[in-house]
Amino acid sequence: MQRSFIDRLYSGIVGALTGFGMLLLLAPTLVVVIISFTGGITLKFPPPSWSLHWYVELLQSQEIIAPALTSLKVAAAATILSAVLGGAAALGLARSRLRIARALDALFMSPMVLPAMAFGLSLLLVFNLLGIRLSAGTLVLGHTIICVPFVIRMVGASVQQLNPVLITCSLSLGASHWYTFRRITLPLIRRGIVASCFVAFLTSFDNVPVSLFLADARTEVLPIKLWAILEGSLDVRVAAVSGVIVLVTLAGLVCAEIFGGVSRQIGSR
Amino acid sequence: MTPAGTSASRQLLPVVPLAALFLAAFVLPLAALVLVSLFRDPEFSGLSLVQYLRFLSDPFSLKVLSDTLWLGAEVALATLILAYPLALVYVASGQFVRTLITFLIMLPLLTSTVVRTFAWIVILGRDGIINSAMLSLGFWQAPARLLYSWEGMVLALTQIQLPLMALPVINSLLRLDSNLTRAAEGLGASRARIFFTVVLPLTLPGAIAGWLLVFAAAATAFITQTLVGGGRIILMPSYIYQQAVGVQDWPFSAALSLIFTLAVTGVVFAIGALSRRYLRGVDAA
User: Fold this and answer.
1) What does the pLDDT read at residue A261?
2) CA B33/CA B244 separation, integer angstroms
3) Of A106, B3, B73, B152, whose CB neighbour count within 10 A is largest?
4) DSSP 8-state secondary structure symbol assigned to residue B126
5) Separation in Å, CA of A245 to nearest CA in chain B
6) Which residues of A touch B108 (CB under 8 A)?
7) Is the peptide bond before A48 cis (omega within 30 degrees of 0)?
């Protein structure tokens, strides 16, 4: 009797906390999507009426659309740079047992450990000391560094799973290094590359600490713009932006899932 | 087949471009950060440790640092308490519930930080969900101040960082040998006892890994701290930003950045080392 009571209490607590945890994970995203369809002029929840008013408003807000386009461009550039440079590095590092390879691996992973605010400030300082003017280019440079760790880990994991005998076979059958890379290596690590591009793009698109220091007046990015809007007032247009971001991210996830099995890659990180 | 020596160094050839980029855009800036923190004043007139002494002798600055580290610890503990039940249910469930939980964990991980933080503004605000629910149910007489409060900030960060804790805890629960729990069950232990004496100690590495991830992420979460915590709660990230961009005191903000980095990584390394020592003891026993 005693034991079954404790067991039931335990199951009850586990169940309740799980329910709360799942609600907590789901609620905010749901709330954002719901509030973006409000017909009211405040963030009152539940919305007093429904409309697409704020999406229409958003389409007419050049001061939000411009930073969004900048963010997309910067994220695309940082993704390509980090995927190409990081992917090449991951291929080189994955099977090397040299001590310098381990040291370089640690170096490439360290942006993940360092508080990004400190990195953003340090870039600002160095550009200023060297007299380099801030631009979209300097921003892409900072974002690339932040994205590289994901590429190194995910592409690196794919390369580890690659059977080296396949490459030896291809080379010994007379294929060139380039042909072997294109026809054997690349298709086999495609999943890792797609997944890391997806995560790198999101990381750059979402980055605040680095952009905060590096974005000048002409290269304003979306998260900083939204942050500035929310610090000043609780603007409902942000809800519409958020709705768009949530839907686009989900669509992107579905695409990445089809091409790369991205959830498995992130889950195993 | 090339000889081992040349092939080993040739393998590293594709690493060179990224290494060069990191040298220029990562190592060099960090060196500049250290250098700038050693200047006596914003006019860069001479080298000294005055910025660090200024931090250590200023009760306000020390309070900001300890508050920030405390916030990280609190949020990490809260996510730990929520992650274990979630992981236990995940491991005990069939494919459908597992997929559902994975989806729910991925959801906040993939929606942008500003969006997640904005959601909490909607939930915690004066006309937000919690206030309107509590008012209409008659529990509260007047709307409570949830937004711009410490508690609201901890709650929001707990949700935002929960995935970082749930993933490693689920992974280590999946690796747990189920014979051990079945043996304990067969010997008549209650489920609570099995959890606290078998499951928890054996999955502690995953829990500690998650704790450290969440600790570092919550302590450095500038956006959520400033928007949900509000202007009256000053934590290290906003302090650095204010000193660098607002006051333009670069030496002091550089010193702040380095102190903050050392404090966060110091906690991470200390707890990591302690846990390795403690967990080796568990293995030996």
Assistant:
1) 61
2) 12
3) B152
4) T
5) 7
6) 25, 28-29
7) no
- The tokens for B206 are 């995953």
**pLDDT tens figures, A241-265:** 988 988 888 888 788 777 766 555 5
What pTM was estimated for this model as a whole? 0.86
Whether B195 sits inside 8 A of A10 (CB atoms) is yes
Diameter of chain B measured on Cα atoms: 81
Which residues of chain A neighbour B241 with C-beta distances below 8 Å? 117, 212
- How many of the other CB atoms lie within 10 Å of CB of A197? 25
Amino acid at A122: S
Mean pLDDT of A227-239: 84
- Token pair recorded at residue A112: 């993940």
Please indicate whether, in this complex, the C-beta atoms of B244 and A213 are within 8 angstroms of each other.
yes
Q: B41-97, pLDDT tens digit by residue?
A: 877 778 888 899 999 999 999 999 999 999 999 999 999 999 999 999 999 888 899
B226 touches chain A (CB under 8 A): yes
Beta-carbon pairs below 8 A across chains A and B: 271
Q: Backbone dihedral region of B163: left (phi > 0), alpha (psi from -120 to 50 degrees) or beta?
A: alpha
Q: Is the pLDDT of residue A268 over 50?
A: no
Q: Does position B185 have pLDDT exceeding 60, yes or no?
A: yes
pLDDT tens, A116-167? 889 999 999 999 889 988 888 999 999 999 999 999 989 988 888 888 888 8
ipTM entry: 0.84
Residues 6+ apart with CB under 8 A from A221: A67, A70, A71, A74, A139, A207, A211, A215
Lowest-pLDDT range of B3-12, B19-28, B133-142: B3-12
Of B84, B110, B132, the CB nearest to A249: B110
Half-sphere exposure of B281 (CA within 13 A, CB side): 7
Strand-pair partners of A38: A50
DSSP character at residue B26: I
Contact assessment for residue A161 and residue A146, using Cβ atoms and an 8 Å cutoff: no
Tokens of B5: 């020596």
Closest-CA residue of A relative to B246 is A213
In whole angstroms, what separates CA A34 from the centre of its chain?
24
Contact present, A195 and A256 (Cβ < 8 Å): yes
